[in-house]
């Protein structure tokens, strides 16, 4: 007791008290930007221009709720116009703020540059908790927010193209597309005003799984490079690797499913809002998905032990940790308990600045958000192209490819005098459909970008981690755009 008392004196308190941890995503993104900018030769004024957020539109609007009215507010931030249109999701959350939207818009600019998607960065948000609203109320909010964006030219196929983000999905994107279409009845390209739409409303197959699938492609590429995984004491290939995932939503679920099915990785823990499922022998991802759908959470899932803290997964014994939920999940309070050797940032900003520095300093390999979760926007780019071409990818050549493969196989079999087994024949003769092409384009994008980041990392000895390398790559590319096009006037 005595020691406790003496430790509580204000003098010793001020000596021992650390300053509060920085939890501002904007400060974090800007600090990462500044660190990377030191390694890139560009005029300082240009570096400053790349960093700042160009416009932010703040909107307050009334919506009829029940018998009364309620005010809602939201934003659309436009970070960079070095490429057009601008691109980025719309977030529905009671915690969304202008600062957060600006930080996420900046991340979009860097993300697009890293994966060679020719868009500037943007992000929107509406301060609303979807769970508290009826579907028709959400529809009214979405349509009114869209109308506000239209009136100030903050949306349009060649201007600014929203997409889903936290709290929004296909349903909201369909409402946005329909609202835009009603305001522009003669517009032939209206469908390209938003991506992440349902397939029947101009969406593209593979978009829903794209962010999770992109995370897997990025991880796979890292695990193909002996040097990269040896650094953290692991072997090549994801087969048998122990994976812990935070978040079983659109990103976490698809990443877990693909890792288990296609890579034979072991999903040893999954954290959700109501608890963490642990199973050192591997969780059956499909069974957990079905269970959560039926029960709304993971409590009571029979395929593992379930603790009641959804953040336990961050401290699980594993090789790879995939935080696929929200910002600031690994922070001062839990960073020392992380056991993973690789952290794959599927969410935006899942590590605080302090946790990032601590874990990198301990030799943990962090594959940064600004690269790793770019699968969503990459496939959005494919969807936008599909909408502008007014044709499904693969429609023109699928049957031709199949006919050519058939003729080639028949000729080969005749020459050799042997038949190819049926299971191989099926693969050889199948022409690529929309989803095959989307996944192939996504894989190519993620592999190329990983190697561009890796190349900068290996070339510039002063760059200490992949995040700094990724930001440096983005700054270099955006800077080059400005140098090439000049500044108006
Ligand atoms: N909201 C997603 C992201 O943060 C997707 C953005 C898009 O497809 O435009 O990357």
Gist?
With 489 residues, this protein is an alpha/beta fold.
Helix count from the secondary structure assignment: 18
Shape: globular
Q: Which molecules are bound besides the chains?
A: glutamic acid
Estimated helix fraction: 40-55%
The largest pleated sheet is described as: 7 strands, mixed
Mean pLDDT: 95
Order of helices and strands: HHHHEEEHEHEHHHEHEEHEEEHEHHHHHH
Count the E strands.
12
- Report low-confidence residues grouped into runs of 5 or more: 1-13
**Structural classification:** alpha/beta
* Biggest sheet: strand arrangement: 9-8-7-6-10-11-12
CATH architecture of the largest domain: 3-Layer(aba) Sandwich
Number of domains: 2
How would you sum up this structure, described in words?
This protein is of the alpha/beta class and 489 residues long. It has two domains: 23-52 and 204-394 and 432-489, 3-Layer(aba) Sandwich (Rossmann fold); 55-201, Rossmann fold (3-Layer(aba) Sandwich). Helices cover 46% and strands 14% of the residues. It contains 18 helices and twelve strands. It has helices at 2-7, 10-16, 25-37, 44-51, 98-114, 135-151, 170-183, 210-222, 226-230, 250-263, 285-295, 353-361, 369-372, 375-389, 398-416, 422-429, 434-459, 466-485; strands at 55-65, 68-78, 86-92, 120-126, 160-164, 242-246, 266-272, 275-278, 305-307, 320-323, 342-344, 365-367. The strands form two sheets. It has a seven-stranded mixed sheet, sandwiched between helices. Strands 1-2-4-3-5 form a five-stranded mixed sheet. Strand 3, helix 5 (98-114) and strand 4 form a beta-alpha-beta unit. Helix 14 crosses helix 17 (434-459). The termini are far apart. The model is unreliable at 1-13 (pLDDT under 50). Bound molecules: glutamic acid. Glutamic acid (GLU) binds at residues 87-89, 163, 165, 195, 373, 376-377, 380.
